[in-house]
Amino acid sequence: PLDEFLERITWHIEAINLAVADIPGLIEGAHEGHGLGDQFLRHVERCSVLVHLVDLSANEDPGADAVVIARELSLYSQLLAGKPRIIVGSKIDSLVPGNSEKLREYAETNGYAYHEISAVVGDGVRELVRMLNRFVRENMDRDAIHEDAAASPIPS
Fold first, then answer.
1. Residue 18: beta bridge partners?
2. Which of 21, 70, 88, 99 is close enough to 56 for a disulfide, judged by CB 3.0 to 4.6 Å?
3. What is the rounded distance in angstroms from the CA atom of residue 131 to the CA atom of residue 23?
4. Helices then strands (H, E): number in the chain?
């Protein structure tokens, strides 16, 4: 059933395959089972990098949307809370004045990478894919180191 909500796209970039899942909006209380709840968050745990799209044209506090997502991820699992994250301001072609700066500040304050796109006109999309490629490569290297360490016997 949850697979109906996941749209998978495979990108082949610089000899690396990226599986990208477009996952529907996370609602407040998801960690307690609201909305798609635990089913949804279990699938998100499989992602190596989280890209959070925040609509810059919707309201005057885009950081508030990002805070809800961050809170739900951390309440569900520290594994999710600790995953590398890219905050992406979307709809820059119709943004509310000042929203870009507010969301960038949120991302920088929380140690997240930040990028902006307009899917309508294509601005920033190619650069976002390159950024995602870099993040996935870096995370694969880090995961390989952690897996090697976990597989090594602990000396007595």
1. 11
2. 99
3. 19
4. 5, 5
AA identity, residue 10: T
* CB distance 80 to 45 below 8 Å: yes
Beta bridge partners of 55: 90
Burial 45-56, CB ≥16 within 10 A → b, else e: eebbbbbbbbbb
Quick: pLDDT tens for 25-64: 665 655 555 555 556 677 777 788 888 889 999 888 888 8
Residue showing tokens 């996952």: 23
Per-residue pLDDT tens for 53-112? Answer: 899 998 888 888 888 888 888 888 888 888 888 999 999 999 999 999 999 999 999 999
The position carrying tokens 């090697």 is 148
